[in-house]
């Protein structure tokens, strides 16, 4: 009996010691995982994760600043989806391909959740100025230069950097900067088809120093480019995705190169751009259109100082919150060999273009732009097209308003005349979410399949 | 011997079981503390805490986007402090009271570290538009309305809200909006002394629809206010902190009320402001000048739509990162009874004014503005002054350039002539950090104590 008691006792002791060893290693591991015990940041981090953990069936997102119902965030559904968890597809919903909202990049950021998250302390960057009293983050500038170095899409050496709230703001800043010191009125032009904002923005802000004149091609043909001329050159162009150079030449002609789409995502990079004024936007690099962040590379010091003056008087520099976010995003872009986002984006856009091309190739009524294969400095090989937009043309004589034709097929595009082109053209965005693109593709298939004589799909 | 062995054995077992109990309760507690195990947000939260944990001797801060040395963030030192941990005071350093940088509120946010922290996911708000396709957060709008309701400083009912990148951008947007549809040129005025940006900004952006004319008081005296007139009314005024009404009246006169400082921090609130165009900024409410966020309350729908058009063409709406940050800050402002920040700010500004007043009262050469006690709707009592700036006057006949006099005493202020006033005046900022204010106070004491005949301090 005593021996049995002793045996039980021994068993208890061994079991207890084993339990201790288990607890000890568990604590050590937990301590390793929670390398640093969080304190004041715990609540914010937990809240962000809680909001993001709500399921929207893969067809919606919840946001920290969205609506809440009974303390739970409400799903903001993708186009054509509805219901509390965005699980209902709305079959008669229109395929809206109007906007250049670059949400095709959303999955990239969801895949990089950990590295792209950012925790902002309540006291972070309250001041009007950085340590050097400027309104531009030096660290962010360095990251931008590195991104250009890796993508090989722009010469940055010997250029000044200016930040703006999107390329939108920098377009205006550049027009002001190039016309301020001029004795004569600067006439602002762009070669059709061109991005509508060049005209609407320049008209709205028209001063005694500049005015929007119209089509650069018309000006070229009329040989009337004397006096100060400012030409917007979009390369690759919006809407047709073709690489461009300035149409006008001369000592009194200044070009503003809008390189929003000059990334491997959307075009071959034959050589790094090396113009006097080059504008880029994070909207079309990382997809963060809502952040309102862009930058200009400027060669001339006077133009640079004028653009800084514009930014100072317009809004005292770009938000520090925006600059911090941009920095975090570019850190992720530069991770590893810094090439991942370009591969992700290019493959997605290329596949979308190929899908659309295939459908349209079966049509007798519609054509799309032809973008020839070209050598790319980034991929170091000849590559095919992957433009941001389809520039669709209605070829049938009676289809003078192509947007109306598509509207009949439950597709919304952007009218050609908005780009100073014919209404036979419609711009269709390839930039949006998979849900948007898939519906667009489906509707186009339907449209083409209804053509008499076209091969059935 | 056997009994002793048995005793040891028992001791081991009891000890082991005690250890079991310890580990068990420890794990349960750790599980309670880490209510939710973090995953993808852990890195960002840990990084933010690590950066913030670096000591800068209470005279500097480290930032996520600051410089790093050997993997450690570098302290950005407050004015007049230096060294790797900002522990060296630089005794001959100038007291710089030029800028209205509202860093006096920094300690408030450090005290509210947990509630004011914000974790932004990489995929957060990438789109150009919110769910309603607008560029203005509905949730943020609601919070702004609540803040006005608690501070009782503005009637919001029946008004439209417009967001801008700081009040700076909204000043310009309002001028455009009020002059766009006018048949005649709108002349823009402000009553001296006035905030310099009204002139510099309006001159820079001058269109065919408006031009800066000058002093509203001159226009009043010359009875020349026919035709479209736009008057900037700053209340309380910058630089002198006095409450103001429009100087000009008439059906063709439109006033833009710049209420940047119309908070209990800086002035009595005799009644909620109820003007047709009222502009506020988060810079002077929470102190987040770097965020570039402001809002306008607008009565007239056409003016409102014009301001929206301005925001659309200028930059496609305010950054979503900025709006998210502003929302988090206003959530903290509204915590509890929503009155804490007003008490914090008022007491700090009041104490600073009393300190300055006391010094200057001993001087025969310098005077400051007189702000009479006034009933305040927020504090529900008569209260004294707590303005953002000292509007110092050099009274001695030979001191025609007051800024130069102060410069001789190692103080930098802002020249009176910049405000369209005499150079006998200097504006001294009371808005900066304790380090800045303490040095300003010290230098002023020195200056006044050197006056012949003045009481020694």
Automatic annotation (TrEMBL), chains A, B:
What is its cofactor?
pyridoxal 5'-phosphate
- Keyword Transmembrane helix in the entry? The reply is yes
Q: Which Pfam families match?
A: Alliinase_C (PF04864), EGF_alliinase (PF04863)
Species of provenance: Abeliophyllum distichum
Give the GO molecular function terms. Answer: transaminase activity
Against InterPro entries, the record matches this protein to: Alliinase_C (IPR006948), Alliinase_N_sf (IPR037029), EGF_alliinase (IPR006947), Ethylene_sulfur-biosynth (IPR050478), PyrdxlP-dep_Trfase (IPR015424), PyrdxlP-dep_Trfase_major (IPR015421), PyrdxlP-dep_Trfase_small (IPR015422)
The family classification in the record reads: Belongs to the alliinase family.
Q: Which SUPFAM superfamilies match?
A: PLP-dependent transferases (SSF53383)
Ordered alphabetically, the record's keywords are: Aminotransferase, Membrane, Pyridoxal phosphate, Transferase, Transmembrane, Transmembrane helix
Q: Where are the transmembrane segments?
A: 6-29
Q: What is this protein called?
A: Tryptophan aminotransferase-related protein 4
For whether the record's keyword set contains Transmembrane, the answer is yes
Source species, domain of life? Eukaryota
């Amino acid at each position: 009996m005593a021996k049995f008691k002793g045996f039980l006792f021994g068993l208890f002791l061994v079991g207890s010691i084993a339990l201790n060893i288990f607890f000890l290693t568990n604590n050590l591991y937990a301590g390793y995982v929670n390398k640093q015990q969080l304190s004041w940041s715990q609540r914010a981090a937990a809240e962000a994760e809680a909001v993001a953990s709500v399921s929207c069936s893969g067809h919606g997102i919840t946001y920290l600043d969205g609506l809440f119902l009974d303390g739970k965030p409400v799903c903001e559904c993708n186009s054509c989806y509805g219901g509390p968890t965005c699980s209902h597809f709305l079959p008669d919903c229109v395929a809206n391909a109007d906007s250049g909202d670059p949400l095709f990049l959303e999955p990239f950021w969801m895949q990089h959740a950990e590295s792209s998250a950012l925790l902002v302390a309540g006291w972070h960057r309250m001041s009007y100025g950085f340590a050097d009293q400027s309104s531009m983050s030096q660290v962010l500038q360095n990251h931008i230069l590195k991104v250009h170095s890796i993508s090989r899409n722009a010469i940055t050496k010997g250029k000044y950097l200016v930040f703006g709230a999107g390329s939108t703001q920098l377009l205006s800043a550049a027009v002001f900067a190039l016309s301020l010191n001029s004795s004569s009125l600067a006439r602002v032009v762009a070669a059709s088809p061109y991005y509508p904002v060049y005209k609407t923005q320049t008209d709205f802000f028209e001063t005694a120093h500049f005015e929007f004149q119209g089509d650069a091609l018309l000006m070229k043909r009329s040989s009337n480019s004397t006096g100060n001329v400012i030409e917007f050159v979009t390369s690759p162009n919006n809407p047709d995705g073709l690489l461009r150079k300035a149409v006008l030449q001369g000592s009194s002609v200044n070009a503003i190169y809008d390189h929003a789409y000059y990334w491997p995502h959307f075009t071959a990079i034959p050589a790094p751009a090396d113009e006097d004024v080059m504008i880029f936007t994070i909207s079309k690099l990382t997809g963060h259109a809502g952040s309102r962040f862009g930058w200009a590379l400027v060669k001339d010091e006077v133009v640079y100082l004028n653009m800084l003056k514009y930014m100072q008087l317009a809004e005292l520099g770009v938000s520090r919150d925006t600059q911090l976010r941009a920095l975090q995003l570019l850190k992720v872009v530069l991770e590893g060999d810094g090439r991942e986002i370009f591969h992700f984006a290019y493959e997605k856009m290329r596949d979308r273009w190929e899908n659309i091309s295939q459908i349209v190739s079966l049509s007798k009524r519609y054509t799309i732009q032809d973008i020839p294969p070209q050598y790319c400095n980034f991929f170091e090989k000849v590559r095919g097209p992957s433009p941001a937009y389809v520039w669709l043309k209605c070829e049938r004589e009676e289809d003078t308003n192509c947007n109306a034709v598509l509207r009949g097929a439950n597709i919304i595009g952007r009218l050609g005349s908005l780009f100073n082109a014919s209404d036979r053209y419609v711009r269709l965005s390839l930039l949006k979410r998979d849900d948007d693109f898939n519906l667009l593709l489906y509707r186009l298939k339907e449209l083409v399949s209804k053509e008499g004589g076209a091969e059935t799909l």
